[in-house]
Structures are given as structure tokens and as C-alpha cells.
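## retry 2 of 3
previous attempt timed out at serialization; input unchanged, resubmitting
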Amino acid sequence: MAKGKSPKYNRVLLKISGEALLGSEPLGLDLDVVRSIASEVAQVHALGVELAVVIGGGNIFRGAQDSGTTIERTTGDYMGMVATVINALAFQNALETEGVPTRVQSAISMSQVAEPYIRRKAIRHLEKGRVVIFAAGTGNPFFTTDTAAALRAMEIGAGILMKATRVDGVYTADPEIDPDAVKLDRVTYREVLNRGLKVMDATAIALCMDNDMSIMVFDLKNSGNMIRAVTGETVGTIVTGGDQ
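## retry succeeded, writing output
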């Protein structure tokens, strides 16, 4: 942990993939992993950083992958959005066990379990020191939770979009497949799009590029990475416009 350091970013949007919550499980939630991530987030929150979180639903259901087989694409995407709500509630419970006040806001109306997404209310929660978990993506089919993360980061005025993954940054190829893949410490939005680098989907990258929202990609499994990143240490890969 970066003891004694002040945060570089006052407000952060953290994107966690649903697959990151699998842990050793083939499907669903590994609650030990959920608790571990919540503990890391709690440490960052203790620094006074305003934190919002977007969680994917691929550990439960990924609509796009099933498209054209057994479930119609739009229906599948809505099922994926509902899956993100399940993950958001599990993560909320883990955070509150850590003593972190938390609110879940859903882009699909689910008044019994989550607030509706209201930008001004979300910002007010952040200002009051609550972690806000944005569920159900953008509320629309054909958009990924990557795009939802980029959109929410800009709507709340985040200083950076941090994407937690299973690898330690952006590589020239998939490091889990290609042993010759080279890690990139810094890369531009255009390089990501032109080279087809696996950072976020093209819509999310284009949205960040148009609005100058920097992206940090780092390894979720390495304990302490999150707090090191928010205090300004070089962690993972930074994606920017090239002049930062």
C-alpha cells in the first residue's frame, strides 16, 4: 500500500468485468474474490477518493455471444443487463461489510433493489462519500458495459477511467496466447483503434477519445494495484490522446 501518499485523482470510475468475479468458479460469483476486490476499493475510499463502479455481467450471461443461436440479440442483451444488477448487489453487500456506504443505481427500473440512474443524485452520493455502483449498463441493447463505463465516467466528471482486468496492462497481442506479446506502458486512443488492441470496445474508446477521458488498464489480481494507481504510481497501461 502507498502509505502517506495523497490521491492523484479525486473522482474515479472503476470498471470491473463480470469475468473478474468468477475466480476459480466456472460460472457465477466467487465470493472470496468479491470480498477481496471490495477490500481494495475500501482502502481507496479511505483515502477520500470519490468512487463509482461499473460491473459487467459476463460471469452470469453474455447476450452478444449467444446472438443468432438460441436467444434473440436484444433479449440476450437485456438478460446481460439484469446479470450486472446481481453482481452489483453482491458487490454492494461486500463493500458495506467493509464499512463503506454504498448505493446501487440501475439504468433499468428495479425500484425494490436499486435506485434509478439519476446523474445529479449519483454525483451527490459521491460528494457525500458513498460509493456508487452503476448497474444495467446504459439501459439499452447493443451497448456493452465498457461503453457504459465510459459514458458514466464522463457524466460524473471522473478524473480517470480505471479498467481492472486479469492482465497487467495492454499488450500487442493476447499475452495468455502469444508468448511474444509486448506490454505497452502508454498508448493513444488511435493506436488502440487502428491496431485493434484489446482495451475496451471501439465505441467506448471513441467516446473516451472524443471527450479526452484517460483510461488506465491494470491487473486486478495484484493486491495494492488500485491504491498505487490512484496515488499516481505507474501501474499497468495508460491510454490517452498522446499529449498527456
